[in-house]
Amino acid sequence: xxxxxxxxxxxxxxxxxxxxxxxxxxxxxxxxxxxxxxxxxxxxxxxxxxxxxxxxxxxxxxxxxxxxxxxxxxxxxxxxxxxxxxxxxxxxxxxxxxxxxxxxxxxxxxxxxxxxxxxxxxxxxxxxxxxxxxxxxxxxxxxxxxxxxxxxxxxxxxxxxxxxxxxxxxxxxxxxxxxxxxxxxxxxxxxxxxxxxxxxxxxxxxxxxxxxxxxxxxxxxxxxxxxxxxxxxxxxxxxxxxxxxxxxxxxxxxxxxxxxxxxxxxxxxxxxxxxxxxxxxxxxxxxxxxxxxxxxxxxxxxxxxxxxxxxxxxxxxxxxxxxxxxxxxxxxxxxxxxxxxxxxxxxxxxxxxxxxxxxxxxxxxxxxxxxxxxxxxxxxxxxxxxxxxxxxxxxxxxxxxxxxxxxxxxxxxxxxxx
Length: 418
Ligand SMILES: C[C@H](O)[C@H](O)[C@@H](O)C(=O)CO
Ligand SMILES: [Mn+2]
Hints:
- By secondary structure, the protein is an alpha/beta fold.
- About 40% of the residues lie in helices and about 10% in strands.
- It has helices at about 5-15, 20-30, 70-80, 115-125, 150-175, 195-210, 240-250, 270-280, 300-315, 335-350, 355-365, 370-375, 385-395, 400-410; strands at about 35, 90-95, 125-130, 180-185, 190, 220-225, 235, 255-260, 280-285, 290, 290-295, 320-325.
- The strands form 4 sheets. It has a 5-stranded parallel beta sheet with strand order 4-6-8-9-12. A 3-stranded parallel beta sheet has the order 1-2-3.
- α4 links the parallel β2 and β3 (about 125-130).
- α1 packs across α13 (about 385-395).
- Bound molecules: the ligand C[C@H](O)[C@H](O)[C@@H](O)C(=O)CO and manganese (II) ion.
- The site of manganese (II) ion has 4 residues, from loops.
- Keywords: Cytoplasm, Isomerase, Manganese, Metal-binding, Rhamnose metabolism.
């Protein structure tokens, strides 16, 4: 059967449950995913005085052909975007600024250093999001930044974050969609601290100083990203979930939940509804931790489906900023973006093709038998036929055929890079 015929047959099965599939597809194409640029070059960036990756994060693998220049990275992103249905956003870090070979300190970065990115985003109808980079720098070498005991170091990172929010506001003004500026810091201790409070007081004061600079939310929104531990901060992280949840709620910022930043049996899907009870908006970094915050490429596993279901069930497609955060250097990096982003969109489609109101009523009625039975049966409903039709409708390759395009791109472009 053709994709169209498969779709018509599948559609009827979902329509039996009162699901308007055409409406679902219309809605889905308006849900942007923020695609992280740093999968494309192993979180290196383009600073003139590049430093080793630090901050307790790690990239493993050495698949050939990674981008080493802004044009190469934008070309690779364009290739990936051509294989992903819908209109999306690209998430930048401050280390991806372009300074024409000049050494520009991070607290001196300006919008002009991201002009090429804005022009590119305009040409490709993309939104841009941003992150100050508080790692891979000599002033973060001892593992502390905004919570550092030395005020001069804290002040440097405060200036960098203030400069970053101004750059993000420039994105928002130029592109007509507010940028999300997410702050994540590596500050923490390898071993058991003797004082957990003082660094947290310093972090709070630093954030208060950063956010004291008024920026119109029409152009920039602020998120703070928590973490459980990093390499070298196994015993204690200043910016824990409790710290940032409290800070975000008290200061009307977005709390950003990274799916790799919790205990192995703790899931972010279980946090979304509770967080949205107390804050209008939430941000995610969807990743895949394997044994630790390993930042594996996102796959369509139970947790990803549950995240999609929680966002859709809670009518939160316009309340949750969905960002991706993984960096796998062991596979073709364009393929990594494509797999992870297509899976995130599949997860949302799966959720939108679930009779959520009916399922909620089953729960209210205490009919846990049918609730479980249907949850399981829907896993073998013809979701793939709808996904294939959606990809065809959106002009991107259907099924695994996108891989042929990545292979051709690798032969023609990536393999030519030294
Ligand atoms: C590069 C990002 O800032 C980084 O991955 C951060 O979001 C994080 O999750 C650190 O573990
Ligand atoms: Mn993250």
